[in-house]
Amino acid sequence: MPNVRQAREALGHRLRELRQATRLNGKEFAQSLGWGATKVSKIENGRQTPSEDDIRAWAEATGHARQVPSLLAQLKSLELAYAEWRAKLKAGTQAQQLTVSEREAGAAVLRVFEPSTIPGLLQTPEYARSILTQVIAIHRVPDDLDAGVQARMDRQQILYQPGRRFHFVLSESALRNLLCPPEVLMGQLDRLATVGTLPSVALGVIPATARLPKAPVHGFVVYDEELVTVETFSAELSLIQPEEIALYGRIFQMMQDTAVYGREARAVMARVLDDLAAEFFPGGPPVA
C-alpha cells in the first residue's frame, strides 16, 4: 500500500526523468530556474514536496508543459493520499460520517467493493452500532456513538434520490463475518435482500466457491471517475490519479463479473441465514 514517502518518491522519479531529458545535471537545472543548488536533488529523491509553482516551472523548463495537469494531479494525490484515522476521527464518528456524506453527495455513480464488512450505506442501525463501537474503542476517539449511528443512517437517504446509481459488490465473507451479535447479522442480511431491490441499487455477491480473478486485499469506493477511497487499519487513502482510478475500475469490473445478482444473490444470503440459524438458534429464534 503506497504511503506518503513512496508517493513523494514516485513524483520525484517522474520529475527526474523530465530533467534528465534536458541533459542538465541537478545543479545546472536548479540554476536555470533560479533555485538553490540542493532543491532539485531533494525533490527528485523524495525529501521535499514541490509546490504547484515548482511543478509548472519544472515542466516548462523541460519542454513538457502538456504534462502539467497530470503532474499537478499526482501532487494533489500525494497531498490527499494518507490521512490518519485519528486525525479524521478526532472530532468523533459523527463528523467523519458527515464528511463521507458530502463526498457521496457529489457523485452520481458510486461503485463499492467490500470483502469483509457490509458497507455503511447498507447497514442497519444495530449493525452500524457494532461497527462504530469498534472504531471508537480501537482508535480511542470521542464516544459519540448515538450521533455517529444516526449520521450513518442519514447518509442512506441518498439511496432514494433520483438520478443516483449505486453498485455494490460484496464477498460472501462480508455476509458471514461476525462483527456483531448473530441476530444482528441476520437482521442485516434481511436488510440487504430488501435494499437490493431498489431501482437505484445493483447488489452483487461473490459466492465463497467462486474462482477469484484477484485477491480481495481490501475494499474500496469509486466516486464517478474522479476519486477512489481505500480504508486501511490506520488510514484512508484518497486516490485521484487517472491511472489509479482506471485500475480500480478494472478491478471492480473483474469482481462484478465474478458476482451473482438477483435471485442468485438472494440465494446466497438465504444460505448464510440458514447457517446462522442452525449454528446459533437451533431451537428457533429468541422470543422478544
Attribute tags:
Cro/C1-type_HTH, DUF5753, Endonuclease, Chain A, 434 Repressor (Amino-terminal Domain), 12% strand, 2 domains, Helix-turn-helix domain-containing protein, seven-stranded mixed sheet, 288 residues, elongated, 7 strands, alpha/beta
Describe what is shown at a glance.
With 288 residues, the chain is an alpha/beta fold. The protein has 13 helices and 7 strands.
Account of the protein in words:
The chain is of the alpha/beta class and 288 residues long. It has two domains: 4-77, Orthogonal Bundle (434 Repressor (Amino-terminal Domain)); 83-280, Endonuclease, Chain A, CATH 3.30.870.10. The protein is 53% helix and 12% strand. The protein has a seven-stranded mixed beta sheet with strand order 1-7-6-5-2-3-4. A hairpin with a 3-residue loop joins strand 6 (227-231) and strand 7 (235-239). The radius of gyration is 23 Å and the shape is elongated. The model has no long low-confidence stretch (mean pLDDT 92).
Order of helices and strands: HHHHHEHHEHHEHHEEEEHH
For the secondary structure, the number of strands is: 7
Radius of gyration: 23 Å
| Main β sheet profile | 7 strands, mixed
Principal-axis shape: elongated
Q: How many independent structural domains? A: 2
- Helix run count: 13
The main sheet orders its strands as: 1-7-6-5-2-3-4
Question: What's the pLDDT, averaged over the residues?
Answer: 92
Pfam family, one: DUF5753
Domain HTH cro/C1-type: 15-68
Protein name: Helix-turn-helix domain-containing protein
Organism: Planomonospora corallina
